[in-house]
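Cast an eye over this sequence plus C-alpha cells and explain the fold to me:
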Amino acid sequence: MRLLIVDDDADLRQSLSLLLREAGYEVVAEADPEEGLRRALAEEFDLILCDVKMPRMDGLAFLRRYRGERGAALIIMMSAYGAEDAALEAMREGAYDYIRKPFRPDEVTMVVRKAEERERLRREVETLRSSIGADAARDLVVAESKAMRDLLELASRVARHNTTVLVTGESGTGKEVLAKAIHRMSPRHEASFTAINCAAIPEQLLESELFGHTKGAFTGATADRAGLFETAHQGTLLLDEIGDLPLSLQAKLLRVLEEGEIRRVGGRDGKKVDVRVIAATAKPLDEAVERGEFRPDLYYRLDVVRLHIPPLRERREDIPALLTHFARQAAQRLGHPVSITPQAFTLLSEHSWPGNVRELRNAVERAAVLSGTKALDWGDFALGNGTKANGHGPVPANGSFDLRSQVEEVERALIQRALEASKGNRREAAHLLGISLRTLFYKLRRVQQHTNGN
C-alpha cells in the first residue's frame, strides 16, 4: 500500500514516515500542499494523510481540489486541537477519517489498517463487478472462432483501464457491439454508454452535439444545452466513423482527450469531464493522415490500443453461433419459436456475407418475419438484390430472367409481407426491410404507380 503524507511540520512528517514504513507501507512525504496535490494527481497512491491547517492551501481546499480532479485515494485528515470542526467538515465532503494531534502510534496504525481493509474490500467488489460485466459481454459478443475469442480476451484486459481504444473493421462487423462489451467489462459499466456516428450529423451541428452550446450561440440556440461529452460523464462515449470527423473539430477533440475539459459552443469557461472514449472506423486512418485529411497527433492519441474485428468471411466458425443468436433474438421479438434447418445452416455458413454480421442479422430477421412459424430453410433467405436462395445458389423468384421485373416483383412481395407483419406500421416495416422510411415511401409510390398503370 502506497501512502502520501502532506504536512508542513517537518518533525511530524519524519516521525510519521518512520512509523508507517516500519509498519510495512511505502511512504512519500511533501511539505508544500501544492506540490503534494500535484504528486497525488500524477502518481498512484492508496491513501493520503493531510494536515487540516497548512499555509497557502488548507486541508479542506486540498480535499476539494483533489476530488474535483477525480482523485480516487482515501484521505485521512490530521487536525490539532481546535481544528476538529474543519476535520469533520472534510469528512462530510468525502474524507475517510481524521486523527487528532498529538496522536499515539497505535492510533495511527489502527486508522491506516482500517483504511487498508476498506480499500481491499473495494477492489474485491470491483473485481466481482468486472467479472459480472465480462459474463454480460460474452452474452453480447458471439465469439466461437479463435480470432474473436482472442479479440474478446484482449478487450477484457483493455476494459479495466481508462485507455483510449480504436476499433477498426469493415462496415457491419460489429464495432459498436465490441465497444458496448468493453463498456460492460469496465469499472464504468454502471454509468451510461453513449454512441454518435460522426458521419451522420452535418458539420455545423456536430460540434454542438459533442460539446453542447450556450443560449444565443447561434440561430435556434434558445437555451443552454449539454453535449454528449457532458451527458456521458463517468461513462463511455463511442465516436463511430471517426475518420469522417471534420478537421475543424479534430483539434477540439484532441484538446478534450488531453485535458479532460470541454467548452460549449459560445461559451468561455471550460468544464471538466470524465469520459472514456472509444473511436471506431471502417476507413484506414493512417492513409487519411497521409492525405492530410486526419490530424496525425489525434490519430496517435486515439490509436493507443487498436482492436481489429476481422470480416465474417474470415471467421466462418462464428456463423452458426451467430445464426442461433439472431434466431433467438427474433423469437423473443416475434413471440414464436424461430429455427433454422441443418441445410440452411450449412449453406449460409458458406455464403460470403459482404455486409458482415449486420447483413446476417438482417437476413435472419427478414426470413423469420416473412416466413411465419415454420423452420427457416435456405430458400427463405433473400441474399443479394431481388433474389432468393436455394441449395444451388441464387435463382429468380418467379422464373423470369428479366432483371428489372424480377427485382420489382420481389420488392413488391417483400414490402407487402413486411406491412402485414408490422400491421401496417410503415416505420416498423422499413426496419424489417432494412431500408429507411423515406426509401419505403418512395418504393410504395412506385408500387402504386405500377398498380395504376395496370
